[in-house]
Amino acid sequence: MSDVLGEHIITEPESEEDLYEARDRSRVRATGEVVLLYVICLGGALTLAALLVVATGGSWTGVYQAMLDGSIWSPGRWGLTLAVSAPILLVGLGTIVSGRAGLVNIGQEGQLVMGAAFAAYVGSRLGGPGPLALAVTLIAGVVSGAIWAGIAGALRYWRNVPEVLTTLLMTAVAANLMGYGLRQRWLLLAPAAGRANRNQVSEPLRESARIPRLTIFGNEFPISVLLALALALVLSVILGRTIVGFRLRMLGRNPRTAHRAGVSERKYGLGAMLVSGGFAGLAGGVMLAGGDFGNYQLVANFGAGIGFAGLLAALVARQRVLVLIFVAFVFGSLRTGSGFLRATGVSGRISDVVQGLLVLALLLPPALLFVRERRRALSATTSRT
Q1: How far apart, in whole angstroms, are the C-alpha atoms of residue 192 and residue 221?
Q2: Neighbour tally for 280: CB within 10 Å
Q3: For 300-332, what is each residue's pLDDT tens digit?
Q4: CA distance 378 to 265
Q5: Hey, which residues does 215 pair with through a beta bridge?
């Protein structure tokens, strides 16, 4: 409805219901654009991976079928996938905590290795009831991982050393420390009588101190999978529904505003680093006591890149805890599925290529959306001036 007064047109304002409908349509349209962008990027990544497989002389249909069989379809495989996904999820949870505080912790592999090493040292020497020994072993992993990350946090807040450098460099230190421990009988090296071909391994955990395993539909996995899921749900509530989570977000997004609101950067930042390292150390303890990595023993290259996989999973999930659960399972599927690739005549390393392309495909849409919004903001600013 409008009235004409001379040369001016007076239009009645839209009703509140019309405004709500327009807003809902805008949200649906924006969501559709995001989903379409993700579909295009994922489709492009899978197509490029298929072309690479064909270029190396393999069959892309055979490769994808082998990866599905190795991760889900074949008997007992999805249980193994869950077991591999659990430590990836734990590392990713810690990465989200440090990321919410605006910190860049990329030393999860080293923190995981330290957690596994201390868990192996404590678990192989601890007596008493099995459940108590298991709990103390996992706690040792958590504490050691937290301390290893806390060193980087202390250097960040008391000496202004960037944590992105210290955490990465300390990963190399942790790997060498574990290697040294596996060469010393008084630290981690098992007695010569119990080692096949005198391999450098630690003593295995006694059976009563190992993580119990569940069997469902012929698939066996440790109950640490349930522990990781429970921690993910708890962390989701803490970060999204509590004052602590709000202060961490405030610190990560706008430190100046956080300071004015009375949020201690040292207290919350250092606490986030300790929690992040604790999750990675717990992942190392779970890998050791779960039996799916190293057969309850600490071996050379024990981390197997799980720390870096958890870091990538958190980046792909964009610091969303519930999304991280799915992403961790996908990364675990890529790892377990690669074991079936040899039957296709294609190197198992192709799974790393597929994983890298998927990570790139999942990180590209947020970057493109950010660039678009940035251009719109600059255009609006220019038009006003």
Answers
A1: 31
A2: 39
A3: 888 888 999 999 999 888 889 999 999 999 899
A4: 31
A5: 220
The residue written with tokens 């999805």 in the block is 78
Global pTM?
Answer: 0.87
Is residue 4 classed as helix, strand or coil in its secondary structure?
strand
Are 166 and 296 part of one and the same domain? Answer: yes
The Cα 311–Cα 317 span in angstroms is 10
Question: Would you give the DSSP letter of residue 219?
Answer: E
Q: Which residues of 54-74 are buried (b: 16+ CB within 10 A; e: fewer)?
A: eeeebebeebbebbebbbeee
> Domain for residue 94, yes or no?
yes
Spell out the residues 6+ positions from residue 241 whose beta carbon is closer than 8 angstroms to its own: none
pLDDT of residue 340: 78
- Domain of residue 327, residue span: 82-345
How many structural domains compose the chain?
A: 2
In whole angstroms, what is the distance from residue 226 CA to residue 223 CA? 5
- 20 and 108 belong to one structural domain: no
Confidence of residue 96 (pLDDT cuts 50, 70, 90): very high
pLDDT, tens digit, 9 for 90 and up, residues 159-212: 999 999 999 999 999 999 999 999 998 999 888 775 665 678 898 999 988 999
Pairing label, strands 2-5, 8-11: antiparallel
Q: Please compute the mean of the pLDDT values over residues 71-86 and round it to a whole number.
A: 91
- Are residues 17 and 127 both part of a single domain? no
Pair 115, 260 in one domain: yes
Verify that 17 and 159 share a domain, yes or no: no
Nearest of 94, 93, 89 to residue 274 by alpha carbon: 94
122, 335, 85, 62 alpha-carbon torsion, rounded to 10° = -150
Residue 369 falls inside a structural domain: no
**Is the pLDDT at 214 greater than 90, yes or no?**
yes
